[in-house]
Specification:
About 0% of the residues lie in helices and about 55% in strands. The protein contains no helices and 11 strands. The strands form 2 sheets. Strands 2, 4, 5, 6, 9, 10 and 11 form a 7-stranded mixed β-sheet that branches. The model has no long low-confidence stretch (mean pLDDT about 95).
């Protein structure tokens, strides 16, 4: 079965930077969208950034200009470069990938366990 694991989270001061990574294990035929979500305490989960297989991207308005999502298709890895971090960015960041495991088979969205990002004032 496919499993995702994130890395790169931690404690950082405001205006600092972090780079998150997410890579899968298991059988993979293709990956469509790769995305990062986050959930802060007491808040709903929100889509932070998504990158399609053709490289097109979409961002949450509040992170535009500060965050950059990218992917390495040879490694099936997605990254989130986070600059100018704010305390409001504090959340559990989770990776999501739309993965097709078998040719002509269904694709399904897989989730990683998440990596904590904490931004201090």
């Amino acid at each position: 079965q496919v499993q995702l694991v994130e890395s790169g989270g931690g404690l950082v001061q405001a205006r600092g930077s972090l780079r998150l990574s997410c890579a899968p294990s298991g059988t993979i035929f293709s990956i469509n969208d790769m995305a990062w979500y986050r959930r802060a305490p007491g808040k709903q989960r929100e889509l932070v950034a998504v990158i399609a297989s053709d490289g097109s991207t979409r961002y949450l308005d509040s992170v535009k200009g500060r965050f950059t999502i990218s992917r390495d298709n040879t490694k099936n890895t997605v990254y989130l470069q986070m600059n100018s971090l704010k305390p409001e960015d504090t959340a559990l960041y989770s990776c999501n990938m739309d993965i097709q495991e078998v040719p002509s088979g269904w694709s399904w969205k897989y989730w990683g366990p998440g990596t904590q990002v904490t931004v201090s004032s």
